[in-house]
Amino acid sequence: MTSLSVFRDVPPAQKLEGSLLKIYKQDNYSSKMFLAYRVCMTDEGHPWVSLVVHKTRLKIAQDPSLNYEYLPLLGMKSFIQAALELLFGKHSQAIAEKRVGGVHTIGDSGAFQLGAQFLRMWRKNLKNVCIVSCQKGECCQFPPCVESPLLPSLSGRRKMVAVPSYARPFPVAVLPSISHPHPALWCLCLSLHFHGPQLVGVCVPTEQYGLIFQDMGFTVYEYSIWNPKELCSDTNIFFDVMEHIPADSILVIGNIIDCRLTQNQWKKLMSIIKSKQLFPFFDIACQGLSTGDLEEDTRLLQYFVSLGFEFFCSQSLSKNFGIYDEGVGILVVAALSNQDLLCVLSQLMNYVGALWGNPPATGARIITSVLCNPALFGEWKLSLKGVVENVMLVKEKVKEKLRLLGTPGSWNHITKQSGTHGYLGLNYPQVEFLTKKKHIYIPKSSRINFTCINARNIDYITQSIHEAVMLTEG
């Protein structure tokens, strides 16, 4: 007798990412290049790992005293303490007053999952999540045959919706209450904001943690402060966005160093946060890899906590140590008092027991050993500085080679961007040319990983960019 599966109504899920890498791997061209790796890469084309990590891992593996018992629900205490000191400074007053603490999580996604669950339960007045970042949205293109009854107002117009965030701040996308909406629904959401014939494309969210908040029942808005004309983050857009964000919202700010705000501008931001009663949720994903200075990359966060702001922060320590497969993170909690902090941590402890119970320990042991040993810590800081200096040099070389080739346009935006990743400022036809004609694989946004460029491939890459620009400009 044949029985029907209880899973017969479950369709295959839409893939969130990886399609570009899959196409790259299927390409048989011997000199193909992939410039969109998430991790830092060495000149040899391998994932970068700080040398101090290799030494520390071997030492830990040979330690006979390790018994590998379960960690406490909040995680490894020594790791949490070391990570907090890295974030706020060893002599932080907030640490001394014991009003900042943390929960050892499974990477940054675990931190956002845990934080979102807490806020849904204990801050029920916060219905909206507003994600502000320097990332620009990916554009979905539709073939000419695509028509949708959901979009009667777009009939007879081009099947793309451009998002001029530099002209008028508004949510790049309001996520519908389904995990992976059809692109037509993105059009429907955006059509609520635009009613003119100038509509030319659809912007989809760029931050994955938006899905975490969405699945928790929040209404998620994503704002980009990227200026596509100037090819840089724009403080004017940033404050326009802040004026339009609804009151009583969760404000998620990714990579705060990229916002490039002055101290006076941060004071203005704090005033807006207070007046609108926003709850800040920061994302510190790669401390030390933006400027090469660990303290500089979190100085503004230290400023927030010194003024008594309460907030959550997702702190990931996987990328800056090169321990990508460990998923080492912390949900940092900043409260007004130690009593408030302990109450929050006690509730988070209950959620942890249901979510994962025991976070990854090996990566945390490695990181703790490095952060608590002055010699190893100094060596690790030098390795971070070396990565950033190499990226800065690569960016300068790319800009100079394009100048010498006579490539149209200004390429100063390449060196103005901080961090290992940055935008080339290419349009969709230029990206398509690189992928299909030159076998250089980059995202449609043209945001690449500059650690993928080295002495062996920089000439080919810059020459290909030059050809792409010349062909499409002509």
From TrEMBL:
GO terms for molecular function: L-aspartate:2-oxoglutarate aminotransferase activity; pyridoxal phosphate binding. Signal peptide: none annotated. Homodimer. This is aspartate transaminase. The keyword Lipid metabolism does not apply. Belongs to the class-I pyridoxal-phosphate-dependent aminotransferase family. GO terms for cellular component: cytosol. Keywords: Aminotransferase, Pyridoxal phosphate, Transferase. The keyword Transferase applies. Residues 261-465 form the Aminotransferase class I/classII large domain. Gene3D superfamilies: Aspartate Aminotransferase, domain 1, Type I PLP-dependent aspartate aminotransferase-like (Major domain). It is an enzyme of class 2 (transferase). InterPro entries: Aminotransferase_I/II_large (IPR004839), Asp_trans (IPR000796), PyrdxlP-dep_Trfase (IPR015424), PyrdxlP-dep_Trfase_major (IPR015421), PyrdxlP-dep_Trfase_small (IPR015422). One of its GO terms (biological process) is aspartate biosynthetic process. Its EC number is 2.6.1.1. Its cofactor is pyridoxal 5'-phosphate.
